[in-house]
Amino acid sequence: MKTKNILSLIETPYIDAQNLLIFLGAYRRPRDWISRMVNSGELIRLRNGFYLIAEKIQQGSNRVIPYEQVANVLYGPSYVSLEWALSFYGMIPERVYTVTSMTLGKAKEYRTSVGNFVYHPLKSSAYSIGIEQKDSACSVGCFLMASREKALADFVFKTCKGLSQEQLKVELIESKRLNLEVFSSLDKKLLSEISEKYHSKIVGYLVNLIGVL
């Protein structure tokens, strides 16, 4: 069977080398075939042992990539958060070009031909609360993403340390141009629970701002 036909059997537009080798089990020296598929453009290498399937992300002249799913699988355990999630929820107006995630592992960054993926470490006691499973709009399966509350908490926790409550207010309104309508609809109880897990003064200030902004 041609490698193109083999790739068409894979449901997702991404695959790791371990699973790809199963599909190439009938080939002699299957790892050499993976290298050939990368060189021919059939596979797009994002890191050693992890690939996008070129024909599955190409729709006409456009590439349609399930960035959130890729981020989860590229490095984990992780969930999508921070600026990427805030943009996903319409909480900030800027388009975001780097897929941002939180992880139980070490800080990591992947610069790839389809975009950059950045991972920020978070302690295990604060990790699990506020994570949601969402269906992908352009691929089979789901991905893990912070809730609106957790995404904003992660953002201020990572980027706003040392600010006073008034300075945080200015940062969110003027610098990030936070959507105040969305902000006012946040679940204050959940945000308070997240703040308790983070043990962070700046996340506590964020809780106080609900109902003030």
Quick overview of this protein structure:
The protein has 213 residues and is of the alpha+beta class. The protein has helices spanning 3-8, 17-23, 30-40, 54-57, 67-74, 82-88, 124-127, 148-159, 165-175, 180-184, 188-198, 201-209; strands at 14-16, 43-47, 50-53, 58-59, 62-63, 78-80, 98-103, 108-112, 115-121, 131-135, 142-146. A 4-stranded mixed sheet has the order 6-7-9-8, sandwiched between helices. Strands 1-3-2 form a 3-stranded antiparallel sheet. Strands 4-5 form a two-stranded antiparallel ribbon.
Structure commentary:
With 213 residues, the chain is α+β, with helices and mostly antiparallel strands. It has two domains: 3-60; 67-209, Beta Polymerase, domain 2. The chain has helices spanning 3-8, 17-23, 30-40, 54-57, 67-74, 82-88, 124-127, 148-159, 165-175, 180-184, 188-198, 201-209; strands spanning 14-16, 43-47, 50-53, 58-59, 62-63, 78-80, 98-103, 108-112, 115-121, 131-135, 142-146. The strands form four sheets. Strands 6-7-9-8 form a four-stranded mixed beta sheet, with helices on both faces. A hairpin with a 2-residue loop joins β2 and β3. α6 (82-88) runs antiparallel to α8 (148-159) and α11 (188-198) packs antiparallel against α12 (201-209). The mean pLDDT is 92.
